[in-house]
Amino acid sequence: MTAFHEFELIQWIRSQGGVSHSNLLGIGDDTAILKPPANSELLLATDMLMEGAHFTFPPATPELAGRKALAVNLSDIAAMGGTPHSALVSLALPRSKGPEFAKAVMQGIMDLAAEFETQLAGGDTNSWDGPLVINVAIIGIADQSQAIQRSGAQPGDWIFVTGTLGGSLDSHHLTFQPRVREAATLRDTVTIKSMIDVSDGLASDLQHILTESGVGAVIQSRQIPISHNVSPDLTDAKRLQKALSDGEDFELLFTVSPEEGQRLRDQNPLAIPLTHIGEITAGQGALLQQADGSTTSLENTGWKHQL
Ligand code: ADP
Ligand code: MG
Questions:
Q1: Which residue, by CA, sits nearest to atom 10 of ligand 1?
Q2: pTM of the complete model
Q3: 210 Cα–ligand 1 center, Å
Q4: Structural domains of the chain ordered from first start
Q5: How many helices (H) and strands (E) does the chain have?
């Protein structure tokens, strides 16, 4: 293995070009400089992925690990109804893996950054004798007071989810598409009252909206859009449970007024499925209603978020 220095990697990253925004001075100085556009707000988020916890080699490749580290952050910006702007990347690289591995991780990040017009604004590069750790900090932009929070759901709101749910860990948790464009389309079509991205599973993430908004919900079990990645060999109950609790779907879960919900149901403005799965109520907690009208507490359907 040839000697490899952080400096060479940074030079290589800079030589790759990438997205460049006129209001941002990116890599090369002690800090990046961002001039926020007038009448905008900055959205800030960070997420860290650790080899062994969030991905393993295989099935992950260094490119896919890098890709996922940025994708989960883009998903957070999408969930706020924002536009991704720039990202900072911190790497703890396993010393034994060498420069090509480091470049591959960065390549996965840079390719997705280009796809979502996100400028690499800087970062930190270290190597050690431990496994790969990737931290991405992201900056997004929203119009003044337009960022969509978890706290805006109101009784009567219709609840929607994009895409399909379940089975992500066996299929697309490394390759999922952050729903940035879908969130922008929805935001421009209706007034989204509350929104979250489904990272831990619908049952768990819906609860965040309910808690922050001080409301309850009734979900229709037969309306849950179960992914084809959930095995058809399982019982219907088990398939539903996986759709509700597997997590890592990174779909959007949001609420709108009933009038706007009707419009979205009549004409889906997205190129992916959009499903009306239930309503917000004045109560507390979430109920799962079966086809026969009976209800159970959503918390009792068997989902558990494991740390
Ligand atoms: P400093 O010593 O001042 O903290 P560094 O030598 O760590 O600076 O980094 C030099 C430049 O390269 C900085 O602009 C930093 O943001 C950028 N940088 C370092 N690592 C990465 C990376 N993995 N991805 C993008 N930019 C990086
Ligand atoms: Mg410095």
A1: 28
A2: 0.95
A3: 40
A4: 6-143 (3.30.1330.10), 158-297 (3.90.650.10)
A5: 7, 13
